[in-house]
Specification:
Membrane topology: Multi-pass membrane protein
CATH superfamily: Fumarate reductase/succinate dehydrogenase, transmembrane subunit
Number of strands: 0
CATH class: Mainly Alpha
Main location: mitochondrion
Number of helices: 5
Strand content: under 5%
Number of domains: 1
Largest sheet: none
Function: Membrane-anchoring subunit of succinate dehydrogenase (SDH) that is involved in complex II of the mitochondrial electron transport chain and is responsible for transferring electrons from succinate to ubiquinone (coenzyme Q).
Oligomer: single chain
Family: Belongs to the CybS family.
Radius of gyration: 17 Å
Order of helices and strands: HHHHH
Protein name: Succinate dehydrogenase [ubiquinone] cytochrome b small subunit
Shape: elongated
Distance between the termini: 51 Å
Length: about 110
């Protein structure tokens, strides 16, 4: 499971920086394009972070060759399901930005 991640690192940093603008833009100017960009960037950001944790802590030396591959496979499945669910929600319901705005406007 080792490899050269030097090409992915700048992309991860660019996604992190892009989230600084996309999150407030999605909340302020909610539309389908921003909702989809938000969903894609958030899922990618969380996926890469959790993948780094899985690679660092679920090592083949400790767990054998099968469990680390299962963990990474499960992470990919969960990330794909999460992205698919968010995109489905954006296209069939009110979207992520409108949902946050609706929750924010709820009064006691």
């Amino acid at each position: 499971m080792s490899g050269d991640h030097s090409k992915l690192w700048p992309i991860e940093k660019a996604v992190s920086i892009a989230l600084l603008g996309v999150v407030p833009a999605t909340l302020l100017f909610s539309n389908l394009v921003l909702d989809n960009i938000f969903a894609l960037l958030v899922v990618a950001h969380f996926h890469w972070g959790l993948e780094a944790c899985a690679v660092d802590y679920i090592r083949p030396v400790i767990f054998g060759p099968v469990i680390p591959k299962l963990a990474i496979g499960l992470l990919y499945a969960i990330s794909a399901l999460t992205l698919g669910s968010l995109l489905y929600y954006n296209h069939t319901c009110i979207g992520i930005g409108c949902t946050f705005n609706t929750l924010w406007s709820i009064k006691n």
